[in-house]
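Section 5: illustrative case.
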């Protein structure tokens, strides 16, 4: 094992810095978790209209503080989330059967909340590759954040780790992530390529889709189930 560098031998002005950030909410009273604070700090860059971002979580149920940052963003961005048919709970038994459409309801509510925002430049992309639990069908559970600052071609900030960025994740779960900040062009290009790969099986989701497509009709039963399942989302 390589010993740690002495202080006088540490790299000055490195190309890349990695910060470990974690959420230990169930274990800490008071809570000294660093992850959500770091995420919110990163998303503060979305107030720069020259920035760009991509946000993804398989379960579309962002923590209100995170959603607020995205809703008030001034820059171009995209959110990638799972189609109901790419959700691991699709056609499951019991009350969890309603989870995919509960997340779909969240997508609809998000689109409605952004509808009157004239500065809105955020697209909602839905990922689907076949139908989960069938031959050739994939589920989607990717998660991450990528941010390109003004005048940058590729992302220079990324968050990699376990968090789903939900209320549950920051209250009931243990989460750990790596916040990566880089000026290395090769690494930035790899981050960009990762996002492009995630987008290969996506299409933009719009409010009109909920009106045109029968499978996107959100019933009162789903709305009621969403309230009952709020602790599981």
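Designed sequence:
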């Amino acid at each position: 094992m390589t010993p740690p560098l002495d202080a006088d031998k540490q790299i000055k002005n490195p190309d890349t810095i990695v910060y470990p950030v974690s959420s230990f909410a169930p274990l800490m009273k008071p809570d000294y978790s660093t992850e959500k604070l770091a995420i919110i700090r990163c998303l503060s860059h979305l107030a720069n209209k020259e920035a760009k971002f991509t946000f993804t979580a398989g379960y579309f149920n962002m923590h209100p503080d995170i959603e607020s940052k995205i809703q008030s963003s001034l820059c171009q961005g995209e959110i990638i989330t799972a189609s109901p048919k790419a959700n691991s709970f699709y056609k499951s038994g019991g009350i969890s059967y309603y989870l995919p459409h509960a997340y779909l309801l969240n997508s609809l509510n998000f689109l409605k909340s952004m509808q009157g925002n004239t500065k809105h430049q955020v697209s909602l992309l839905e990922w689907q590759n076949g139908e989960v639990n069938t031959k050739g069908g994939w589920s989607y559970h990717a998660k991450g954040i990528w941010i390109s600052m003004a005048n940058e071609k590729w992302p220079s900030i990324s968050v990699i780790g376990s968090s789903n960025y939900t209320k549950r994740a920051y209250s009931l779960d243990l989460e750990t992530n790596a916040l990566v900040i880089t000026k290395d062009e090769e690494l930035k290009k790899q981050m960009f390529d990762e996002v492009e790969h995630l987008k290969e099986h996506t299409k933009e989701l719009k409010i009109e889709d909920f009106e045109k497509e029968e499978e996107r009709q959100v019933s009162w039963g789903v709305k009621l189930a969403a309230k009952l399942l709020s602790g599981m989302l």
